[in-house]
Amino acid sequence: MKDVQKTFAFSVIAVLFLWTVHTATGAFILHQGSFLDLFLFNVPLPDLYFRLLIISGLAVYGIVLTKFRDRTERNKLAEESRIHREQLEKQVEERTEELSAANERLQKEIQDRSRTEEELHRSETFLSTIFNSFYDPLSIVDRDYTMVKFNDAYPRSKNKLPKDLLGQKCYEALYNRNSICEDCVVEKTFQSADPCAKEKLVTLPNGAGMWLEIYTYPIFDQNRNVTHVIQYARDITDRKKTEEENKQLIITLNHLSTTDSLTGLLNRRALTDTLLHEIERAQRYDSDLALILCDVDRFKKINDTYGHAAGDRALRTVAESLKKNLRKADILGRYGGDEFMIILPETTLDGAKSLAEKIRVFTSEKVVELSGKGRIRLTLSIGVASCCTSEDNIDTFVSLADSALYSSKEGGRNRVSSVEA
């Protein structure tokens, strides 16, 4: 509508302009009359036709131009509308494709997430099954020593309910402490980032003792910092019992291998090993060493007359007599048969002779009572020797003491003889 008005106004202005120009030409150039007469009142008929023709032509031109411009404008608007519509349709199509792709991605993400959650759930279920399949107590604590996970066996081993432990600090919930326990292997693992282990004796609610072997293992984050510690405890009571039994067995076997079963004294093997050691020590430090060999007088007659039981009783009586007269540092043993050996570290020959005489007198005052068979008075023949030079050895040393003992036997028994290397 605005374009029609503009065309009409332009046509009117153009007609007026041409009318005025034509009137002015006739009035001022051709002198056909006054301007006003020629413009309004006295217009020549040819001029009037000419003006009307021009006016008609301009009107037709304006109408045609308006129509053309309207059509052109409509075509332009239609083309712009078409282009806009195509662009909009393209945008809609692109947006639809984007939304479709986004929807597919979202569905895939949902499916993947669902699958991941399902797999995670299965994995957690599987791990929980494994976790609770351990017969022995198993727990996990964080840096604050808070118990974040444990298997079914753990609270049972502590005689606690799970709700009383989960989320609680171990030293508070288990031991009513306000700080970590002494010698805590969990603390050691946090500090060292290495697995640790220890054995611990605990008292059960029924008062019985139980040995635990406790292992700790670190859990690291991506920066290799220890964030949690796994604690695994294993009941080793039976093993400790077996170990103790084995230990006692070894002690027993060692005792049997070094002890004379009749008198409870060291046997010949133990005496030989000890004498070797003492000779080496005396030679190394240039110290005194003496040796006593004792023999029960007429022991064969005791056995033959009163029997071996009487002979055994006589040997035990002599062993007790010898022990009562020795110092802590002296070493006593049964060398064989009715023969006894006494090793005297850091003892001179005179000191050994004095001790031997004391033993001889003390033993001679002893008697062995025989039920219904009377009594036996015991005496000892004793040989004493001392050493040591760098050339001395166990054979020569024992040989010297044996020679002294032989001298006592030959001299009438119940006496002390000595010899010095």
Largest sheet: 5 strands, antiparallel
| Helix proportion range | 55-70%
**What is the gyration radius calculated from CA atoms?**
64 Å
Strand proportion: 15-25%
Would you kindly provide a written description of the structure presented here, covering whatever features stand out?
The longest helix is centred in the N-terminal third of the chain and has 89 residues. The chain has a five-stranded antiparallel sheet, sandwiched between helices. A five-stranded mixed sheet has the order 7-8-6-11-12, sandwiched between helices. The chain has a two-stranded antiparallel ribbon with strand order 9-10. The radius of gyration is 64 Å and the shape is rod-shaped. A hairpin with a 3-residue loop joins β9 and β10. It has three domains: 105 residues; 103 residues, Beta-Lactamase, CATH 3.30.450.20; 162 residues, Reverse transcriptase/Diguanylate cyclase domain (Alpha-Beta Plaits), CATH 3.30.70.270. α1 crosses α2, α1 packs antiparallel against α3 and α9 crosses α10. The chain has twelve helices and twelve strands. The chain is α+β, with helices and mostly antiparallel strands and 421 residues long.
Briefly summarize what is shown.
The protein has 421 residues and is α+β, with helices and mostly antiparallel strands. It contains twelve helices and twelve strands. The longest helix has 89 residues.
Keywords:
421 residues; alpha+beta; Beta-Lactamase; Alpha-Beta Plaits; 3 domains; five-stranded antiparallel sheet; five-stranded mixed sheet; 12 helices; rod-shaped
